[in-house]
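re: ur question from yesterday

yeah so i grabbed the chain u mentioned. its 96 aa long if i counted rite. heres the sequnce exactly as i have it in my notes:
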Amino acid sequence: MPAGYIIALVTITNPQQYEEYKRWSSEAMRVHGAEICVRGDRVEVLEGDWHPGRTVILKFPSFEAAKAFHDSPEYSRARAARQGAAVMRLLCVEGV
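ran it thru and got these structure tokens back, copy pasting raw so excuse formatting
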């Protein structure tokens, strides 16, 4: 079965408040068994028009599991904590 990935490109606008989002999102990742593939701030654009902000890539057993993480009560709490702290660009992608 193909894996599911959540890919996030983040512009942090309130670093102090974003720490609360990180705490709740980390708990949601733990509950839903996310494998953290990428979680960092160091980005260098090599080609094209890309957003050089914080990048996070999470792996789940399936596309459906990745969507379930996003739609879960645990991650909903993290999203609420993030309001006003960051601009989030989020994708769910099926992969290997």
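noticed a couple things. The chain has a mean pLDDT of 94. also The domain at 3-43+52-95 is CATH 3.30.70.100 (Alpha-Beta Plaits).
anyway ttyl
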